[in-house]
Every structure is written in C-alpha cells, then in structure tokens.
C-alpha cells in the first residue's frame, strides 16, 4: 500500500485511502491487481514476474483501483495461507499494525482468507505478534488458540463471511498468476528500487 500511496496519492493519508477503497464494491468492479512489484516469492518463486492491473477500463475509478490493490495483496496472502493450511490448519489470524485499525482492510482479509481475524487494541504491531508466538514456542501456552485467549477483551474480532464475488475474483487472480507477466525488459535501463 505504501508504494501505491507514494506513487499515486502522495499526500493522501492511509485512512483516507481506506475511505476511498470503501466506495468500491467487493471485487473492485472487476479490476484485479497482481501485486508482484518485486517479483513473487511465495508460493511461486519467480523474481521476474511483475505487477499489473488486469481488466482496467475508463469506467473504473480511483476507488476501484485502490480497492483492487488491497484485494490483490490479500489474494497473494491467500495463496500463501493455502500452503500453510495444508501443513497445519489455520482458524484464526492476528492482525496488527496500522492496517489493523482499518475496518475495510480487516473485512477484506477475513472474507478473502475465510479466516477469523483478531485485531488487538495494542499498538505494538509485529512485536506483539512475535511475543505471542514466542510464548507458545517456550511452552507458556500450549498452542495459539490458548495464547489468543489471553488477548485483551477489547480486541476487534472479524468473522469471515462467504462472498461469491471474492471466490470468483480469487479464481481469476490465480489464472493470471499461473501465466506470470514477463514482458521484455531492457535490464540496463529499467528503474532500480531506490534509485
């Protein structure tokens, strides 16, 4: 989201971008964003694939494009979650950091991932999640479910709702990811990150 904001909406606060995204519908009115700005690492290791908006037309708005970015990131997370779930089923996820304060972001995550989200009111972000994992690792709690019970009761819990629009959009996302975008790039003149 930082790249999108810095590139297309440099003076717009994240909270306003979330408000803009909320003006679009689930599925971003058909726009898909493939978030492979630096290639793809998981579950398909391919450093040469690139990002793209798919199905973009003159009829689409800033709200559709912004929401497509959010949804595309979550579709990518969904592919990773499927790999993890094949090893160990996941029923809850802990959402921390700035995005966890956004209701639309939490709803998109829960609906696409079809997993309950718990967003603690704590501001510690990644350190908070790491501490919870460490407590399970050292045996303070027998598993993540028990550790989640220690979270403050004022946590925001978001239950997944089935959404056929997201189910279809995820299929479309996957079909585009199986044919990664590898356009000809003159490596001597392509922009470098940070320069």
Q: What key phrases describe this protein's structure?
A:
mainly alpha, 7 helices, single chain, 3-stranded mixed β-sheet, two-stranded antiparallel ribbon, 195 residues
How big is the Rg?
Answer: 18 Å
Biggest beta sheet summary: 3 strands, mixed
Count of beta strands = 5
How much helical structure, as a percent, in the residues?
A: 40-55%
- Largest beta sheet: strand ordering: 3-4-5
Structural class: mainly alpha
> How would the global form be characterised?
globular
Low-confidence stretches: 184-188
Question: How many helix segments?
Answer: 7
* Series of H and E elements: HHEEHEHEHHEH
Percent of residues in beta strands:
5-15%
Q: What is the end-to-end distance? A: 19 Å
